[in-house]
């Protein structure tokens, strides 16, 4: 770890205390974080130890520790503008960006450079509210750094009419350049939005079209732009958008026919395939992505890319750009044909034949391509299998080899896609114009705002011609950046004779640009090589090594014989593999057969492309075009130089996009990776130079015109004397400014030959003073104008204001602490004055509101009105409560009056209310007690309550009662007491009579029991005799029957007399038996009569028992009520008459004993009753 963290200082400054005076922190190099703040822990001999915030310990030599750069406090805060730091260093820049990214602040300002770190997630900083916020501010530096702020700076530069504006967005692939450009265009379009033309919306709608046809997934970015674009936005003097022109650079058409591992082709192919089932695309007969050979090596799904949604956005954008349905369908047909073209493959017609034919299913695929392109299938096949060579008047057709046929097929596919992309750009440019063509940047009427979004610096394992040209464009942009920021900083100072002090060095890449694009450079050599038929990529590479082998920027390959060379670019060293360089650079036009084939198509789009190719072929043949005119690099360099001239002629704003990590994930900041990008982009050098140089440079005339207002003074003797300005001399003005302002010393302001130079601090002081001077002048003018306006408006208010003043003088209290009642004495007077004040106040307020001017005295009058209103309301409340039965409301009203410090009124309102409150507080509890006694029917408590009322002088007829219902309740209580006494006396008499009856019944029951026992014995004897008589009668009857049978047996007749005799004998016996039983029967009847009498007696006893039971229940209820009343007395703290709680408890105990005796008597009655029933 100690080896990885070498303590090398950024600047040789001695360590010391930090600005806070506490812990000393120093910048220390780190293997991963590059630079981190560390605390100097200890120095032991020749070794020093430092501790980071996370506890990591670093060791270095004591000598190295002395050279460490000290950390300034503000360097740790994550400031918005790096140049605002007093000490700017590489470590401070990296740490600031790192801290801001951790807080999701992805933008950091470095003077005019905006550093944008890709968050790889959606942030809520691009809403309409944020957009409006930046549109409404006059200076973007007043708000946090944002891409909207860069757009605002460019638009304000246009409004000043000084120069054209250019915004250069650069960075690595995946750094967020495309998204930054989209947000920038959205801001500009909304800022200059016009409801009449709608052109701004069309400019924004170009993004989905360009992304669909020009973006693809690479190993570094899922939505990488595979081309560069320059947008020329033309504005009128009133910032009305007049038109837009889009120029594309270096579309990577080779991606159509093949991609490296982990990448995929252009988005449009996958968008079409995802929507292949829609009715709109049914005629294309698209199949699964795996069916197409050109997509075999592609990643089918790009992370974060929704192809279906992209297709819908593409269709909406095309409709907004006025693409017709048929026109858009033709575009889709060409794209689908390119896919199907890759499925065409070839084989030999016969075993010994060199002629090639379409193999297997390729014939059907070729027919499908011909159907989509609306061309002849046979001619299309011949274009892929044969080459026609015209020599004089002879036409020679040569069959192609297998590799040549496949190359021809891929060439046609790439040509179709490239021409389709150019056609789309042309159509969009036509529809983004309101009228005349774009003027040159030198015209004064209109201004241009250019936005450049071009591929960043690229370095892969295999780098071809495309990477060389992309890196050349980035070298040119870096060179322009150096000139704009560094060289102009130095050259202007040298020209004006201003000494910058210490020598300022910067990384100059002019030699690298010259090596690639200069006269006799590498690209010139490539153009020369394609003119030689026998030239190869290897001969070209050897020529480069021979011609520039000693150049410091050229890296010669270690092994001879390889077509490889390296270039030390400003960002890194890149090795280029020259395979295919010459073929790509030749940029040969398609054969005449292909152009004729396209020109004969039934599709209008292809006919236009075919005619364009034919015109180019004719022009080339007529001019006998040189090799340079034919080369792709020549065309690219020509357009690149034109672009750089536009950027150089404009006021340029820079957006440096930074990729925080290689994994394209959110919240992951790779400090080393970011540090490399900051160094390569020149941001570190810009910080250092801008901080040390002069940020403000004005000519003498501009300086005088801009800052003379600060030195304007007023004559002290008269305020009407006009301002006296100093003489129009720079030295005099600067001397005056030094007297007025606190300008830092140390050469902060320097006068050159024709310009005044000011560093950042001094320029800030001057601008703030100028703003204050303008503010003072404007405020003075506004003060005079508003004074006159208010005086004119106050004339109608004068009578009202005088009335208010008179009222205040008449009614306001004379002394502090007094109230209006002290002066007005009564409620009626206060109400009368309140009505007058309210009317007057409403009149003043209404008139003041209509005039739109403030009335200074209104707050005071409103306070007075509020006080008077409070007094009136309090008095009204007390008057309303004179007949109230609510003591709480009366107490609250009296408290409000006391709080308002109201004195006694003439009618004694407060005293009457206080007296009523006292009566209510006394009588309401008594009234509640009366109601409770009536509910409980407790006579004892009622008697005690009546005694208490008599003691308080509140008898039933007392006039002291203020509660009308109380007298009635008192009378009801007296009646209840009397009735209860009578009832108790009656119950007592009935109880005594019941006791006497009980004794008599007891005696009677005893006698009846004895008599019943005797009669029971007699009854038993009677039953025995009856049984005996019955037995004798039965025997007599049996004898009679036996006699009769005997007579019959003797043969004697039995006449009626005999029967009568027998019957007589039987009846006599029966009568004899009845006579014997009659006494017993009589005795049984008597016993039955006695039993009936006993039952009657038992019924009477039962009735008496029920009566005793009811008396017992009444006594128990009285006992319970007495207990409840005692509890109420205890809870309320009341007493009844002269009885104490102990006496009441004694009475309750006596009642309980009485109840127990009654229960015993009832039990005895019940026992007697039960015994009587048993006896019965």
Distance between the termini: 121 Å
Helix content percent band: 55-70%
Question: What value does the average pLDDT take?
Answer: 79
Query: Can you list the strand order of the major beta sheet?
Result: 5-6-20-7-16-10-11
Uncertain stretches of 5 or more adjacent residues: 1-22, 438-444, 625-629, 713-727, 1054-1066, 1132-1139, 1172-1176
DSSP E strands, number: 23
Rg, rounded, reads 60 Å
Name the shape in a single word.
Answer: elongated
The biggest beta sheet is recorded as: 7 strands, mixed
| Alpha-beta content class | alpha+beta
> What is the helix tally?
36
- Strand percent estimate: 5-15%
Structure write-up:
With 1176 residues, the chain is α+β, with helices and mostly antiparallel strands. It is 57% helix and 10% strand. The chain contains 36 helices and 23 strands. A hairpin with a 2-residue loop joins strand 5 (107-110) and strand 6 (113-117).
Spell out the blueprint of helices and strands.
Layout (H helix, E strand, L loop, with lengths): L24 E6 L3 E11 L2 E6 L4 E5 H5 L23 H13 L4 E4 L2 E5 L10 H8 L11 H14 L4 E7 L5 H15 L7 H16 E2 L7 E2 L2 E8 L5 E9 L17 H8 L32 H14 L4 H17 L4 E3 L7 E3 L3 H12 L3 H9 E6 L2 E6 L2 H29 L16 E7 L11 H32 L13 H8 L4 H8 L7 H12 L5 E2 L8 E5 L4 E5 L3 H6 L5 H8 L4 H20 L3 H4 L1 H18 L1 E8 L12 H10 L2 H10 L3 E4 H8 L22 H11 L8 E3 L3 E4 L1 H34 L4 H14 L8 H5 L2 H25 L6 H23 L6 H13 L9 H28 L2 H13 L12 H87 L5 H77 L8 H35 L1
Parallel strand pairs: 6-20, 7-16, 7-20
Antiparallel strand pairs: 1-2, 2-3, 3-4, 5-6, 8-9, 10-11, 10-16, 12-13, 14-15, 17-18, 18-19, 21-23, 22-23
Helix pairs in contact: 4-5, 5-6, 6-8, 6-12, 7-8, 9-10, 9-12, 13-14, 13-21, 15-16, 18-19, 27-29, 29-30, 30-31, 31-32, 32-33, 32-34, 33-34, 34-35, 34-36, 35-36
């Amino acid at each position: 770890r100690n080896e990885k963290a070498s303590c090398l200082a950024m600047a040789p400054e001695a360590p010391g205390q930090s600005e806070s005076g506490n812990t000393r922190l120093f910048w220390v190099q780190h293997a991963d974080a590059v630079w981190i703040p560390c605390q100097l822990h200890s120095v032991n001999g020749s070794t020093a130890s430092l501790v980071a915030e996370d506890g990591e310990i670093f060791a270095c030599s004591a000598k190295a520790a002395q050279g460490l750069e000290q950390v300034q406090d503000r360097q740790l805060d994550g400031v918005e503008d790096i140049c605002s730091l007093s000490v700017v260093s590489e470590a401070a820049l990296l740490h600031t960006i790192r801290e801001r990214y951790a807080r999701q602040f992805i933008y950091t300002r470095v003077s005019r450079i905006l550093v944008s770190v890709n968050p790889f997630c959606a942030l809520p900083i691009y809403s309409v509210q944020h957009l409006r916020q930046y549109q409404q501010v006059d200076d973007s530096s007043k708000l946090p750094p944002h891409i909207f702020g860069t757009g605002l700076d460019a638009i304000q530069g246009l409004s000043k009419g000084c120069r054209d504006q250019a915004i250069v967005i650069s960075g690595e692939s995946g750094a967020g350049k495309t998204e930054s450009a989209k947000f920038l265009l959205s801001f500009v379009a909304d800022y200059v939005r016009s409801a009449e033309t709608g052109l701004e919306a069309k400019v924004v709608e170009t993004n989905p079209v360009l992304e669909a046809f020009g973006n693809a997934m690479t190993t570094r970015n899922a939505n990488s732009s595979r081309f560069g674009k320059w947008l020329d936005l033309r504005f009128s003097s009133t910032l009305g958008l007049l038109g837009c022109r889009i120029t594309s650079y270096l579309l990577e058409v080779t991606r159509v026919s093949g991609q490296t591992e982990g990448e995929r082709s252009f988005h449009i192919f996958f968008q079409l395939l995802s929507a292949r089932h829609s009715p709109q695309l049914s005629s294309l007969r698209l199949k699964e992505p795996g069916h197409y050979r050109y997509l075999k090596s592609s990643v089918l799904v790009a992370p974060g890319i929704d192809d279906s949604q992209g297709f819908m956005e593409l269709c909406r954008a095309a409709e907004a750009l006025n693409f017709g349905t048929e026109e858009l369908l033709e575009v889709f047909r060409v794209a689908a044909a390119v896919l199907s073209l890759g499925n065409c493959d070839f084989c030999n017609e016969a075993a010994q034949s060199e002629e090639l034919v379409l193999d297997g299913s390729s014939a059907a695929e070729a027919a499908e391509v011909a159907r989509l392109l609306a061309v002849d299938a046979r001619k299309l096949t011949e274009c892929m299998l044969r080459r026609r060579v015209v020599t004089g008047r002879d036409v020679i057709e040569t069959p192609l080899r297998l590799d040549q046929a496949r190359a021809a097929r891929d060439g046609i596919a790439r040509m179709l896609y490239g021409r389709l992309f150019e056609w789309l750009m042309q159509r969009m440019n036509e529809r983004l114009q309101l009228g005349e063509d774009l003027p040159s940047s030198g015209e004064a009427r209109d201004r241009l705002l250019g936005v450049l979004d071009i591929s960043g610096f690229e370095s892969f394992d295999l780098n071809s011609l495309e990477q060389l040209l992309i890196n050349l464009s980035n070298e040119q942009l870096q060179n322009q950046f150096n000139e704009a920021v560094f060289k102009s900083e130095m050259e202007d100072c040298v020209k004006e004779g201003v000494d910058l002090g210490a020598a300022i060095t910067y990384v100059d890449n002019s030699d690298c640009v010259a090596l690639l694009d200069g006269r006799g450079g590498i690209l010139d050599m490539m153009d020369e090589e394609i003119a030689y038929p026998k030239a190869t990529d290897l001969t070209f590479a050897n020529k480069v090594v021979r011609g520039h082998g000693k150049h410091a920027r050229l890296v010669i390959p270690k092994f001879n014989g390889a077509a490889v060379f390296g270039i030390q670019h400003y960002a890194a060293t890149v090795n280029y593999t020259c395979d295919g360089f010459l073929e790509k650079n030749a940029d040969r036009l398609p054969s005449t057969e292909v152009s004729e084939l396209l020109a004969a198509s039934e599709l209008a789009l292809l006919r236009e492309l075919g005619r364009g190719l034919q015109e180019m072929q004719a022009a080339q043949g007529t001019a006998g075009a040189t090799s340079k005119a034919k080369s792709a690099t020549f065309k690219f360099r020509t357009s690149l130089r034109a672009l750089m001239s536009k950027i150089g002629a404009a006021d340029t704003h820079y957006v440096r996009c930074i990729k925080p990590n290689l994994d394209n994930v959110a919240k992951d900041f790779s400090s080393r990776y970011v540090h490399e990008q900051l160094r390569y982009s020149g941001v570190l050098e810009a910080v250092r130079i801008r901080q040390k140089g002069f940020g403000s440079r004005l000519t003498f005339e501009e300086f005088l015109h801009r800052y003379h207002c600060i030195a304007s003074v007023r004559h002290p003797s008269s305020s009407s004397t006009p301002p006296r300005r100093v003489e129009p001399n720079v030295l005099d003005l600067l001397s005056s400014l030094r007297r007025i302002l606190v300008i830092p010393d140390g050469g902060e302001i320097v006068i050159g030959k024709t310009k005044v130079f000011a560093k950042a601090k001094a320029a800030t002081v001057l601008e703030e003073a100028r703003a204050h001077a303008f503010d003072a002048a404007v405020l003075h003018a506004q003060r005079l104008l508003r004074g006159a306006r208010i005086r004119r408006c106050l004339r109608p208010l004068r009578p009202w204001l005088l009335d208010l003043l008179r009222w205040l003088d008449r009614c306001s209290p004379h002394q502090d602490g007094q109230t209006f009642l002290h002066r007005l004495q009564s409620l009626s007077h206060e109400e009368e004055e309140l009505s007058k004040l309210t009317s007057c106040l409403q009149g003043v307020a209404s008139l003041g509101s209509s005039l739109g001017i403030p009335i200074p005295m209104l707050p005071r009058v409103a306070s007075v009105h509020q006080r008077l209103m409070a007094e009136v309301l309090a008095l009204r409340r007390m008057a309303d409560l004179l007949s109230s039965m609510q003591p709480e409301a009366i107490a609250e009203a009296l408290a409000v009056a006391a709080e308002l410090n109201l004195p006694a009124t003439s009618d004694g309102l407060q005293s009457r209310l206080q007296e009523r409150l006292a009566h209510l507080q006394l009588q309401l509890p008594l009234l509640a007690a009366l109601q409770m006694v009536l509910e409980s029917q407790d006579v004892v408590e009622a008697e005690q309550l009546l005694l208490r009322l008599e003691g308080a002088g509140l008898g039933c007829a007392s006039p002291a009662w203020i509660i009308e219902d109380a007298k009635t309740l008192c009378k009801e209580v007296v009646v209840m007491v009397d009735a209860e006494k009578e009832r108790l006396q009656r119950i007592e008499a009935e109880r005594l009579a019941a006791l006497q009856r009980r004794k008599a019944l007891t005696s009677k029951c005893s006698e009846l029991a004895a008599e019943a026992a005797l009669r029971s014995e007699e009854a038993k004897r009677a039953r025995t005799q009856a049984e005996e008589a019955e037995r004798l009668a039965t025997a007599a009857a049996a004898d009679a029957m036996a006699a009769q049978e005997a007579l019959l047996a003797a043969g004697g007749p039995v006449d009626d007399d005999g029967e009568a005799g027998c019957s007589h004998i039987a009846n006599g016996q029966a009568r004899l038996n009845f006579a014997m039983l009659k006494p017993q029967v009589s005795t049984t009847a008597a016993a039955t009569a006695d039993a009936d009498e006993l039952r009657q007696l038992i019924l009477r006893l039962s009735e008496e028992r029920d009566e005793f039971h009811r008396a017992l229940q009444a006594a128990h209820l009285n006992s319970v009520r007495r207990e409840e009343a005692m509890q109420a007395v205890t809870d309320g703290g009341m007493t009844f008459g002269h009885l104490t709680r102990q006496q009441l408890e004694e009475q309750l105990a006596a009642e309980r004993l009485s109840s127990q005796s009654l229960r015993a008597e009832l039990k005895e009655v019940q026992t007697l009753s039960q015994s009587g029933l048993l006896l019965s």
